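Morning!

This is the sequence you dropped in the shared folder:
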Amino acid sequence: MKKLKNEKELVKKAIEEGVKYGEKRGVVEFEATDSATAKIEYIYRLLVHDKVIQPVPEDQISQGTMKHKLAIWASKLK
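The structure's back. Tokens below.
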């Protein structure tokens, strides 16, 4: 897995857009006290469930791989 050039910024963008996406669908309501780790995992699983992104094999899922997949997703958003 090769890191993207501006992966940190893309992960931040992915969290923002993922929160909007989940709340717009009406499936989740994030609190200000929710950790970034929890948001990343929820957004990743929601996007996989909705078939927006390709899943990583279950035995290879980690916080790093989820961040990477979300960063790729965010890089494709307009």
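Headline: The chain has a mean pLDDT of 94.

More detail when I'm at my desk.
O.
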